[in-house]
Amino acid sequence: MSTEQKTVAVLGAGTMGSGIATVMARAGHRTILFDIAEANLQRGIDTVNGFFDKSMSLGKLDAAAGDSAKGLLEGATDLQALAGCDVVVEAVFEDLALKKDLFGQLDEIVSDSTLFHTNTSTLSVTGIASGSRRPERVVGTHYCNPAPLMKLVELADGRHTADWAHKATIEFLDSLGKTSVVTKDRPGFIVNRFLIPWENSCIRALEAGWGTKETIDAAVLGAVGHPMGPFRLLDIVGLDIHQQVATRLYEQLRDPKFFPPPMVERMVAAGDLGRKTGRGFYDYDDTRLFGS
Known about the structure:
By secondary structure, the protein is an alpha/beta fold. Helix content is 45%, strand content 13%. It has 2 domains: 7-183, Rossmann fold, CATH 3.40.50.720; 192-277, N-(1-d-carboxylethyl)-l-norvaline Dehydrogenase, domain 2. It starts with 6 loop residues before the first strand and ends in a 22-residue tail after the last helix.
């Protein structure tokens, strides 16, 4: 496992971006969390620091390591601040034009050797890479949510991804303590191709009265062995994010099992997005995304 410290930029300070930034800082890399909105950026930084504070309070991280990780994190609202980055991880809203534009802008700022990673889970890595004049350096790295707690990262090459970028990405993921699984550049990759229909099925079962959120979560924990039930997971991911991912997969695959159930639309309309808003399927006093 490589222990060389790198400078890593994470684009987007939402749920995924904050989680990925947590992973980077915890692994000892200088981490720049980027967002165009100052309020979003501060919220993201607070999320990362909150995770470390809680980990220290629970005895899962010693004080020296926690303080060191917090010291490696900084924020930026100007892309020029990313000039010295070795790796850029894009974790912004699932919009192809936006992702392409960001990589195109970064081409003029960072070194030609900088790795570009996209955390997309629904869009084409090849399509995103086309925004860069060096598509050979673009690799899909989909971190399973919640990123600080889940070890798996899906790795998907674009059509023009170079062997050196693929190998360097695997080495980098190893440095984070992650397990990488190579998959094809296809909608949903492996995880969301299975997970989204399953989560939709759980929501439909709840709508139909087959069980309560508590009993369905308990059944999954007890019989399937997942680390958390579907409704706890959905509350961490965010119902708005689930809706976006499910809708985009449905648009590409035209399979009704990907279409989000009506309950999701009602919850999003009500602002019941999950842990980040204090209420989703469950209510939360602690709105830190990666809290216990």
